[in-house]
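Students often ask what a holo structure prediction actually looks like on paper. The answer is less mysterious than it sounds. You provide the chain, you provide the ligand, and the output is a string of discrete structure tokens encoding the 3D arrangement of the protein together with adenosine monophosphate.
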Amino acid sequence: MTALPPGSTIGIIGGGQLGRMLSVAAAQLGYKCHIFDPHEDPCAAQVAGGFTRAEFGDATAVETFAQAVDVVTYEFENLPVHPLKAAGDKLRPGTRSLAVAQDRAVEKQFIEDCGGRVAPWRTVDSLDDVRGAVAELGLPIVLKTRRYGYDGKGQAWIRSEDEAEGAWNAIGDGPSIAEAGVDFSAEFSVIVARWADGRHTFWDSAENEHRDGILRRSTVPCGELVAGQLAEARKAAIGIAEALGHVGVLTVEFFASGDGPVVNEIAPRVHNSGHWTIEGAVTSQFEQHIRAICDLPPGSTELVGEGAVMDNLIGDDVDRWPALVAEPDLHVHIYGKGEGRPGRKMGHVTRVR
Ligand code: AMP
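The corresponding structure tokens follow.
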């Protein structure tokens, strides 16, 4: 593919905040964006030139959409894979990245096959399997549904044997994995942007703090302990991206453990832990994704200052907006999602240092 010229149209499947921030970055480079989403007023469509309202599983709608744009990308991973094949080779990244990332068992196996370290795990399909996993892996373990889990949803911890049944019922008694609890000192992510010809860039890695399974804060630069694990983590991340033939941004989340970096999960897309790059790096993750899928040259990923801290605005945190916008050095992002339900990501703020 040759570089897509300004004026071309980028189709984005998924209309959430990631699609919104991708659209803003694309607009800056002179591209138009067209959003595909089943909801009535997806927040990405508020800033994009076109919007198709259709179900993700509607292959005919995907095909029509793909014909109307020059390149197609996606902004979240819980999409049915088969209908997306209707986008043909306009789809970047391809369906392989999606298929691997959306099933935790396939994902873990794939990471192991790439030489990455993961927590000991088993697939579990019944309460008997869960009891077997407790016996083999020891305690604590965490059960995670194979599909449709995000932000700590579809997960339940087992800390003593008598919690096994309750945990199994809590995640819904369906195809799942059991994973040994990792004793980690910090969580961090490696975000890599990869081009079709194999060129790739990394950003500084953020150290991530979660509460109730949801990312609350990302801080760059990371601490010394994480810094000592970055070389190995980056090697794992680019190995995964290459094995997937991934084009665009890919995020790999890690635990910094005593044994080295342990991969928690991958996201075949821009990531919440990279939002700090909008103001904190020369080229943001959103712009770099657009550059990679449109085959423009890579932008610099150097820090603009010494670092950055990004805090999410979850649920009614966003009601604090008058005080936040009154802070002259704070970069405030509000996603235009309307109502601030508990646990919903409504915006974020970044301080560049
Ligand atoms: P996930 O949805 O897999 O990203 O999990 C959400 C959060 O739960 C992670 O960011 C960790 O803080 C925690 N967590 C998930 N899996 C494990 C594990 N195997 N050991 C320890 N903590 C975990």
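The pocket of adenosine monophosphate is lined by residues 119, 142, 149, 152, 179, 181-182, 187, 210, 213, 264-265 (CB under 6 Å).
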